[in-house]
Amino acid sequence: MTVLHAFKPAILPLAALLAGLTLAACSMGGGGSGTAIALAPGLSARMDQPGASLDRVQAISIINAYRATNGLPALTPDAALDGTAQALANQYAQTGTPPKTPQGLTVMKLSAGYATFAETFSGWRNNPADAAGLRATASKAGVAVAFNPSSSYGIHWVLVLGN
């Protein structure tokens, strides 16, 4: 079982741009136009806004695109793991303390302070220890975010992988 923890050292605009370019490259339009499609709104939506809602399917799809470039099979979004991730994200946002990894999970990745999933993913992908967690042997994934404006980091992210 691996627990990886990343805090926002600074906003990584270049990393976010690279994540967007990676996603755009994976979704190039047909017809040979070569025009890239912009980063999906669900990945660039700020989670510190009223009514913000994480697009979990898009979040898992960017992780799967990364896994594919590393020759790994896709993760299946899992509603039960989403529920686990949400409970952990809520706990993390309320206490500011990294939660313990529940039994049965292969990986739990934490992050705090990033406003969007694209930024969070870029932080994970660009940190060797975190990137190893994204490449872990697993078949299912759940992801969640919780916002607490009175906490030090505001936004708290949890990704859980399991089989």
List the helices and strands and how they pair.
Elements: E1 2-7, H1 13-26, H2 41-44, H3 56-69, E2 76-77, H4 79-95, E3 107-112, H5 117-126, H6 128-134, E4 140-147, E5 155-162
Parallel strand pairs: 1-3, 2-4
Antiparallel strand pairs: 3-5, 4-5
Q: Kindly estimate the percentage of residues that lie in beta strands according to DSSP.
A: 15-25%
* Mean pLDDT level: 81
Radius of gyration: 15 Å
Structural class: alpha/beta
**Can you count the beta strands?**
5
**Count of alpha and pi helical runs:** 6
**C-alpha end-to-end distance:** 12 Å
**Strand line-up across the major sheet:** 1-3-5-4-2
Query: Helix fraction?
Result: 40-55%
N-to-C SSE string, H for helix and E for strand: EHHHEHEHHEE
Uncertain runs = 1-37
Principal-axis shape: globular
Give an account of the 3D structure.
This protein is α/β, with parallel strands linked by helices. 40% of the residues lie in helices and 18% in strands. It has helices at 13-26, 41-44, 56-69, 79-95, 117-126, 128-134, and strands at residues 2-7, 76-77, 107-112, 140-147, 155-162. Strands 1-3-5-4-2 form a five-stranded mixed sheet, sandwiched between helices. A hairpin with a 7-residue loop joins strand 4 and strand 5. Helix 3 packs parallel to helix 5 (117-126).
List the keywords.
18% strand, 163 residues, alpha/beta, single chain, disordered N terminus, 5-stranded mixed sheet
Question: Short summary of the structure?
Answer:
The chain is of the alpha/beta class.
